[in-house]
């Protein structure tokens, strides 16, 4: 983290590993290290980690009261201002732990939402994050009004009477439900605009290539290397949240639109998977996926599986794909790199392997496009308008005929075939 950045919180990380939890729900050293990187991305500093093995999670405190006391002492010694759990906490567990520890308690989901709120730049990105935050907040409202509920008498309230806390709670719930409905409507508008843009691209027969991958795998660096997009590419998790699309000339006969997408991560909050459908639905309409894998990371196989699972969840499992093994320049000499027909090893940072990747993209998206020279009689001048609409016109000269050099798809070639110069 840059020294000029102000540290927002000193954080102690807590994780639980239990045989009754699913593998994806458990904490281990690798997920705790990743959580620490997320804390740094959020502007915090990890001052300690506590990883506990326990037969079953405690229903009330998740880690058990003895462990809570131990964590509290640790926090006091380290001057921590926040505790973040690598596991998902229920709203009541989060409330109890905050009361017992005396400092704010978040879970991994809450931390990721905070990062997304900081990073989202476009209107769409902000809408998506806000929607996810409200969905996360809704079940956690109850604890925010306990101080008011106590004013209602015994705390339970007599039959037929409602404490002011409960009234406030219902008001807040209603307001949040209204806000969620409004955000969903706004996102539908965004989807419609995206749909119109996609139809335009379809009309122009421009294929779409979507870059996907685990967070920090090097997707933005690859997009910059391919298109000179100039997107900030930092060694930080979730540095890109808003989809960026750029035009790329792959070869003489192929132009594509390349879209960078938000990085995937294990234990991605389900609210975000749902909220980010508007961004990730680009995948459904892509002609080709580039799955960028950080092959220098010892966990690359697990990370690739997380991405694979999310691609399937988004309905893009059948799309053609190239697995792009990035950061090959960081792999120790002599280590065997994955290889195969749909695999390309590159370094997005140095540009190594990029020419081969472009060849593979060209081959996978070859739809019979050809560059041709046409000699159009002047009475067929209307075909020139069609070519400007449906093809890529490179040059026009007026002599005895209208001589046109253009890159045409199969459908356009069929319409102008009689005028193709030998």
Give an account of the 3D structure.
The chain contains 14 helices and 13 strands. It is of the alpha/beta class and 422 residues long. Helix 3 links the parallel strand 3 (82-85) and strand 4 (104-107). Helix 4 runs antiparallel to helix 5 and helix 5 packs antiparallel against helix 7 (164-203).
- What is the arithmetic mean of pLDDT? 82
Radius of gyration: 27 Å
- Give the neighbour order of strands across the main sheet: 6-7-5-8-9-10
Helix content: 40-55%
Give helix and strand order, one letter per element, not per position: EHEHEHEHHHHEHEEHHEHEEHEHEEH
Shape estimate:
elongated
Helix/strand-derived category reads alpha/beta
Straight-line distance between termini: 62 Å
- The beta-strand count equals 13
Low-confidence stretches: 144-165
Q: Which band does the percent of strand residues land in?
A: 15-25%
Largest sheet: 6 strands, mixed
> Given the structure, what is the number of helices?
14
Write a compact overview of the structure shown:
It contains 14 helices and 13 strands. With 422 residues, the protein is an alpha/beta fold.
Jot down its keywords:
422 residues; alpha/beta; six-stranded mixed β-sheet; four-stranded parallel β-sheet; 14 helices; 40% helix; 20% strand; elongated
Strand and helix map with partners:
Layout: E1 10-17, H1 29-41, E2 45-53, H2 65-78, E3 82-85, H3 91-101, E4 104-107, H4 108-119, H5 123-137, H6 146-149, H7 164-203, E5 208-213, H8 219-227, E6 244-251, E7 254-260, H9 270-275, H10 277-280, E8 288-294, H11 300-313, E9 321-326, E10 343-345, H12 354-364, E11 370-376, H13 382-390, E12 392-398, E13 402-408, H14 410-416
